[in-house]
């Protein structure tokens, strides 16, 4: 009797195994490969050209953003700043200066919330409020969005896509983690040891003492320039080199 009792659960498991497997594959499918293949999210733009896009999150900051901007100007480097709306309201002149220097201003929500806890409606409000704040400050309406913390799912992607935005992440091998103050040397080595054509590099110009970021850029910018790299905005990277990525996924 016990053998029969054991047999039926095992038989049921065998019958259902394909459907469980398909479900698991579907869940795994909503990852980088899924979104990148659809063109919904961009992590990098592999190209033969020696171009690289430096990006800065969470600002503007009244101390560190101007220091970073001065270094970028010194090395004729255009970058993309993913700004937080309420900080744009605090320091509009800094954002105007960035725009005047032809840096790209992009959307990073209004209050930098944990968007995993937001409804689609609240996310849209965050994005639209930031959009209007940026527009009233610079006269420019961004088309790029980076989710706080790098979190994304179908709700996030679909919501901002319908609002006219493309989600921009960063190259996995170019997350400097400068927000954690890992040391200037680690930030420098992360970027220089992994630099590839079409990279999107993640820095922060706000979120504490960003002196390490500034000091790292003092070494990174001249070295990349010596290697022949041109510093472009993310939109320039997309327009000039396309955004179709051919990669092999683990």
UniProtKB/TrEMBL annotation:
Domain of life, per the record?
Answer: Bacteria
- Any Pfam family matching the protein: Polysacc_deac_1
Naming one, the record's GO cellular component terms include: membrane
Give the keywords, sorted.
Answer: Hydrolase, Metal-binding, Signal
Q: Which CDD domains match?
A: CE4_NodB_like_6s_7s
- Give every NodB homology domain span: 50-232
Any one biological process term the GO annotation gives: carbohydrate metabolic process
Under the heading SUPFAM superfamilies, the entry gives:
Glycoside hydrolase/deacetylase (SSF88713)
Signal peptide coordinates: 1-26
Q: Which GO terms describe its molecular function?
A: hydrolase activity, acting on carbon-nitrogen (but not peptide) bonds; metal ion binding
Is Zinc set as a keyword in this record?
A: no
Q: Which PANTHER family match?
A: CHITIN DEACETYLASE 1-RELATED, GLYCOSYL TRANSFERASE-RELATED
**Would you tell me the protein name for this molecule?**
Chitooligosaccharide deacetylase
